[in-house]
From TrEMBL:
Signal peptide: 1-18
Name the UniProt record assigns to this protein: Uncharacterized protein
Keyword Signal: yes
Coiled-coil ranges per UniProt: 255-282
UniProt key word Signal: yes
Keywords in alphabetical order: Coiled coil, Signal
Length: 359
């Protein structure tokens, strides 16, 4: 307050001097006067800003009965912030991770029993994490899987072009076919590597968004971290089984099959080089059989569709754990359990009071 009074007195004297300079000085002093006027407006704005801060502080003190609010972070916030840069064995999930039922109840308990001053912040964090789960589901199912399907279509088209080129009656020669083997193998390996890199980058972005939201989540940090961990691990498992075990293995087998058939075709043509009709029929037969194999992709697209559905379900469950709905059975199961626990606690307290009274 003394500082503000001093500033007001100082600026008042400056304003008077500015008025005198403006009235009595020639034009080349006008710039000085303008500068002083600018500082005058800034001072007025700053005083108004300080007054607003003071009013807000007074309102906060009245709302909390002149008590300072507790800190907005917990020990777990500090631990998780640092351990994400360290090996997993430093603070393994087995120490802190909660199962789905425990963390669902934990979240509900924090929101229900937290102090009134903290509850709005916890509710906002809970809602933002629920929104994060929905956004993550969209990024994975609508963006990543859609791009994966598109890239797979392009790979099959380029593979069919390669087979048609390699079995063309005029273009076909051993040197050309050898180059095609290398091109096909490189294209398949590049597709697999890039898809895994895109999946990893997508998960990194999902993790980054979560870390930003829960940086100061306090008592909610452990259950929310448990929700995140399970959703990420399940998503990785589905992707590994779907892509690396299913689609990638099938593509490598397809590349090997095409290479084997074209090598066999090349050897048979050398044996039949004097019979142009037989060579032409053999090329057509090989091309047709390989194109049928390439076009038989229903199993891979079905696997993509199934995996997309599973991933969407994983993230929907994560959202439902964070935000419980009265329309869900788990909500009422938790309510009944809470009522039972409250009854047990009441009976225990009454029993203690009875024992004290009897003594």
């Amino acid at each position: 307050m003394k500082f503000l009074l001093f500033m007001l007195a100082l600026m008042f004297s400056v304003f008077i001097q500015a008025e005198i300079v403006t009235k009595e000085s020639p034009l080349h002093y006008q710039r000085i006067a303008n500068t002083v006027q600018s500082y005058k407006q800034r001072t007025i704005n700053y005083i108004s800003y300080v007054q607003d801060l003071t009013d807000n502080a007074e309102r906060e003190l009245k709302a909390n009965k002149n008590l300072r609010p507790s800190t907005v972070y917990s020990t777990h916030d500090i631990i998780f912030t640092f351990t994400k840069y360290l090996p997993s064995w430093v603070y393994p999930a087995s120490i802190w991770k909660e199962d789905p039922v425990t963390r669902r109840k934990h979240i509900a308990k924090v929101l229900r029993s937290s102090p009134s001053i903290s509850r709005p912040r916890y509710t906002a964090i809970r809602d933002e994490v629920a929104s994060w789960a929905q956004t993550s589901a969209d990024v994975l199912t609508k963006d990543y899987f859609a791009n994966l399907t598109l890239e797979l279509n392009l790979l099959f088209m380029s593979t069919m072009d390669l087979v048609e080129r390699s079995t063309d009656s005029e273009l076909m020669n051993s040197l050309f076919m050898t180059a095609d083997y290398v091109t096909l193998e490189h294209t398949i390996d590049k597709f697999i590597i890039e898809c895994n890199q895109k999946f990893k980058a997508t998960l990194n972005q999902v993790n980054s968004d979560f870390d930003r939201i829960v940086a100061l989540s306090g008592e909610l940090r452990v259950p929310l971290e448990s929700v995140r961990l399970d959703a990420m691990e399940q998503t990785k498992y589905i992707h590994n089984k779907m892509f690396n075990t299913g689609i990638a293995s099938h593509l490598r087998y397809l590349g090997h099959r095409i290479q084997t058939e074209l090598q066999r075709l090349s050897g048979e043509i050398r044996d039949l080089q004097n019979n142009q009709e037989a060579c032409k029929a053999l090329k057509k037969h090989t091309a047709d059989s390989l194109l049928v194999i390439i076009q038989d992709t229903e199993s891979m697209y079905a696997l993509l569709k199934k995996s997309k559905k599973f991933v969407g379900r994983v993230w929907k469950n994560a959202k439902d754990e964070v935000v419980q709905s009265p329309l869900k059975l788990n909500y009422w199961i938790d309510v009944v359990d809470d009522v039972k626990q409250a009854g047990k606690d009441l009976l225990r307290r009454l029993s203690k009071l009875k024992k004290r009274y009897n003594h």
